[in-house]
Automatic annotation (TrEMBL):
Keyword Protein biosynthesis: no
GO biological process terms held by the UniProt record: phosphorelay signal transduction system; regulation of DNA-templated transcription
Protein name listed in UniProt: DNA-binding response regulator, LuxR family
Keyword Lipid biosynthesis part of the UniProt annotation: no
Length: 221
């Protein structure tokens, strides 16, 4: 991206906040717009600063990151074209991955991710792409919840208006493919893929590719 990417760093540990901020501020195309130390502060700061990306811890006192993510969605602050949320944690537990992505997070990073993974994820989220740490991506692709329940009627209803080609695109999003990879697989232009992806997100009510991937993993064979 040619424009500066503004980031709000949210973590209850001052040292972690300072470290993340220093890493991000060292990048020519990224600037830290502000910091917050819990979910409530994150929501208010996001409403005030409108950052491109929130880098937010899950486990925090008072209000945690999952509460903040839901509240940001309720206020419309994470709709397409607004702030994107990257969840950051030391725990790669299944329920955190599912809850964060299903609630609209653009990605999920472990705190032991490399500098390159961190900055790359911020850039990907700002550009509207999914950003998952390699460990989390591998678990999703391998179907780490092998005993998943049957999809509910409401989940299936979200797929009802998709065309056959849009279902194909959704399935490839689930498999972690980029727009360019989808275009190559389907032998169509990149512009066509972007149009399909936009329609898939609109028709399913998903706020991000990551959320669409979770929906697809729950509903598509």
């Amino acid at each position: 991206m040619s424009e500066q990417i503004s980031v709000l760093v949210v973590d209850d540990e001052p040292i972690i906040r300072a470290g993340l901020s220093a890493i991000l501020d060292s990048q020519a195309d990224i600037t830290v717009a502000g910091t917050a130390n819990d979910g409530e502060e994150a929501v208010e700061a996001c409403a005030r600063l409108r950052p491109n990306v929130l880098l937010m811890d899950i486990r925090m006192p008072r209000r945690d990151g999952l509460w903040a993510l839901a509240e940001l969605g309720r206020r419309g602050l994470t709709r397409p074209g607004r702030s994107r949320v990257l969840m950051l944690t030391t725990f790669d537990l299944d329920e955190y991955v599912d809850d964060a992505l299903a609630a609209g997070a653009s990605g999920f990073l472990l705190k032991n991710s490399s500098y390159e993974e961190l900055t790359g994820a911020v850039r990907a989220a700002a550009a509207g792409h999914s950003a998952l740490s390699p460990a989390v991506t591998q678990r999703i692709i391998e179907g780490h919840l092998s005993g998943r329940r049957r999809p509910g009627d409401q989940e299936l209803a979200r797929l009802r208006d998709l065309t056959e080609r849009e279902v194909d695109v959704l399935r490839l999003i689930r498999d972690g493919m980029s727009n360019a990879e989808i275009a190559e697989r389907l032998v169509v232009s990149l512009h066509t893929v972007k149009t399909h992806v936009s329609r898939v997100l609109t028709k399913t009510g998903c706020q991000s590719r990551a959320q669409a991937a979770v929906l697809a993993r729950n509903t598509l064979p």
